[in-house]
Amino acid sequence: MSGHVAPTRGSGDGDRPPSTSSDPNEEQGKETTDVPISKGIPGPTVEDTKRRQTQATLGSKTTEAGSAVVIDHTSTYVEIPKNSKFSTDIGFWQSWSGSISSAIFVALATCLAVSTYSLDKLANKSVNLGTIETAFDHDVWDVPVMTWLNHTTSVAAGANQTITSASYGSQSLGDLQYDLCGRRDWDCAEKVRPNTEYVYSLVASTFPTIANFELPELVDAIGRLQMQYVSQLAGFNFPVVQYFVPGMDWAVVCTVRRGTYRLGTVAVSDIDSVAMCVKRQYDPAWGCENDSDMDATVYVIKVLNGRATYLGQTKRHEVYYNPGNLAPLTGSVHGTGLLGTVASNDEYQGAVLVSNAPWDIYGTYLCKGTFSSETYLGMHWKGLGKAVILWKSSALMLTNAAVLWVMTAYFAATQLIYLPRSCVCAVPVWGSKTLAGLVVLVLACIGNYNVQVLTTFLSNNSVTAFDAGPYRLAGPLTMACIVGIMTSTVIQIYFNPHLATPSSIVTVAGIISFVLGFVLEAFVIVAQCVAIVAIVVLEVIRRRDKSNVPATNSVLRLFGTKSFLTLSSSTRGGIVKTLSNGDVVVDGGVLLSKNFVRVCDNYAVRSCNVKYAII
């Protein structure tokens, strides 16, 4: 053969014609090549032919120069040295970050389940908080004061008082306990004073009728008997009066409290305000103090509709530091009786939490050295009470915790079984594909209102029946765990379906959300549960009133206020109009308001179905 070398065909080529393409890339991968002699390239030798046959058998490819590269297909992988830039050693965290993140979320879900179970033990049933003490040096309670009524007069002058209006007294001890005036409203105080002095004179009139009265010299000088009394005029008062004769070392101090009593064979108990009087050293600097010996005799007197009745006597330890006790009454013409306290019921946030406590019927007061006539703070009350609470939890509180724990545990278990060494956490990825987590988050936010009520109450009140510390933190921990878990899910929802958020990002975000939520719920919201912040905010955003509304305006006179700012945040927007003659009116026509709420600096008053016409 001259000029050409017969090509050697690889196995499986059949009679395929030689390639005419000039592109060397197209030539790559073909088993035969026509190589012209004129190119100066020698023809294939026997060794070349054998090598090509071997190459064809192994499925290898040829280079554009016609030489073959033999690839060993029996090898499964090529080992790359660790010091190479192509090393596959990516570190422990990057390799196990997904599983570690899942374990962290399972821990949060477990904390959620434990804290929710703890709260559920307090929910929807009566829980005894134990015996609670309010003292002068700890757990101090200030008696609320609106107008401090403090006056000294004689018993004879009080007996000659004329009650001008039934609106300011019915000649009963209950009037003294429920008299209400505005803040430093001295006109109102002057109106209730005659009834107060008259009732106290009726109390003193029973002293001569008490057998074995401890101060007969005071009874003998009853014509010179003086009385000094104080009252808070706050709607639920703690009135105290000191009876004394100038020059005598001893006095009688009476405390007015509401109680329940039963006399003789009467089966039904009466509930009314009674005066409990004890012998005490006369104090010329007396403020409101009524303390005495624990074994001192307490004389119980009732005044109702101008009639005074001596109910009997008992020992002070029966009615003081003995909450819930029924004190025996002896020495009256009505026979043996029983005196007990009326349990107080306090409702918080629309009865989400109700506290019931029978407190001491005879508490001890302290004003001297503590009460300030400027701030109206410092009248302290000392006594014991047995508190029981009923807390209403969210109906789905326990269900939410169970659902979220099962979801988190299932996703984490799946991660450990199928994706143990992955940089992607399965909990937020798979959690973002279901609405169950978001539903739990929404329901938890709604039910967190009830949990905050319980947390605030336990943080601000003493508990002696059990350790309330874990329960104070269980509520904040519940919400913080839910927020910590769902933060990662919300982040993943934002990137769906394009990206899987790295586990490091969702883990850090979840931990930050957990810590922030716990701190806010446990230490900020509860500790700052005061009205000062709200008052400051309202004052900052309030639009200033530029209208000069005269005090004779019918609406101002109707609500007894001097400014519309006590009724609304502004008089703009058509509320106040000025007529052509200069008269200022408030809107026009008839305003029908349901559940109208008037808010001022000291109190809020709600009036339902208020209808008034503008004159």
From TrEMBL:
Keywords on record: Membrane, Transmembrane, Transmembrane helix
Region (Disordered): 1-65
Domain of life per record: Eukaryota
Record's compositionally biased regions (Polar residues): 54-65
TM segment ranges: 96-119, 395-418, 438-459, 471-495, 507-538
Protein name, per record: Transmembrane protein
Organism name: Lagenidium giganteum
Lineage: Eukaryota, Sar, Stramenopiles, Oomycota, Peronosporomycetes
